[in-house]
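Data card: per-record layout.
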Amino acid sequence: MTRVGVIGLARSGRAAAKLALRQGAAVYATDAGDSAELRTAADELRMAGGVVELGGHSVDRLAACDVIVVSPGVPPTATVLGDTRIAAVPRISELEFAARAIRSPMIAITGTNGKSTTTALTSHLLVSCGFDAPTAGNIGIALSEIALRDTQPDWVVVEASSFQLADVDSLKPAVGVVTNLAPDHLDRYDSVEAYYGDKARLFDNADADSVWVLNAEDEAVMALPGEADGARLVFRVNTQLEATEQGGYIDGDGNLAVRLDTAETALVHRTELRILGAHNEANALAAAVAALSAGAQPDCVAAGLRTFGGLAHRLEVVADADGVLWINDSKATNIDSTLVAMRSMTRPTVLLLGGRHKGEPYTRLAPEIARTVHTVVAYGEAGVQIESDLGGAAHVVRVDGGFDDVVAYARSIAQGGDAIVLSPACSSYDMFRNYEERGDAFKRLATAGVR
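The structure for this 451-residue chain is written out next.
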């Protein structure tokens, strides 16, 4: 009997443990935490036949396993992963473990920013064209939950983070997409090169049938596949396709268009998109090219582009009260993502910036902040660092206390015509379990008393 260890019992790890049990493996599942939610998960797994430990890890049990599945929320610096007693045990991500069991072709989407929107939009386009194409990975459901289905979907569209790609072995998407690359997660990586190196694992098992959809306006993205086999399609927003390129672009009339094989097709005008900004035009082109590569037809792709309304927590307008626009961009957990948000602002802005620092200085935000932001409200564990990095270039006010205090201060200084924008450029883990919880708290506070 195969012995499977699972480290981390949040959504992905819990699903991986259930999948291993379904496959007849002996499962030891463990999590360093011990919350009510984890205890409920532990009870479910024990009832299914697994051995579960909370509040710590039995390294001897892990060392006896044939393979260890690591949940994406477990950092590579976790003490248990560095224990020499388990060094010889093969280690894979939940993404890899589930992919081995899935019979459906996969579209895998990675990048620094835009991958959630691109994943959701690709799924939406395929569903609009009549395919069963759920999202999984970092959004949607855990990939292992797809593997547990008795009936497999036509396609599965996966958002793949660098943490998930770090421990893949046989992962082989039919279509792979890279949205862009920029420094991120430097709190968990020694260098930008190491971060990009994990992203490049997407291409490890490429062959002649692979299709890659790449951002041609990002040199790092174009270099990422190296000599990997497969067809290379591209997308461009600010420049036209070169004569030898195929993919998506904005034509001279402002249409999102594609050139595939010898056909050039205008899909929708950029003003027909319900998601705004050049970055979302790029996401839409990437998703359209991926969906067309998966067999979708141009007319239903165009219809899907017109109806996609975007994601929660990503430049989400949640209230317009007393002339103040409240915008929830909680998913902006790095500098580049916050830059995208700031470039979209046209109103005087109160920017809520803070959370847990991820390693990159905030100085790169200064020029864009100077354009529209009249006050930066710095908070959380990163508050002191933000004040230090931006204090000489912007009006920065550090607010100590809870998130309620942060939002209350922003409300007190905002005037009619302003925007209050939560675009933190930090992870949420100093105050919240995830960026969704942070965004939901912002929405609750923003709409309090609004009729």
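Known properties of this structure: The mean pLDDT is 94. Residues 20 and 349 are 49 Å apart (CA to CA).

See the next section for split statistics.
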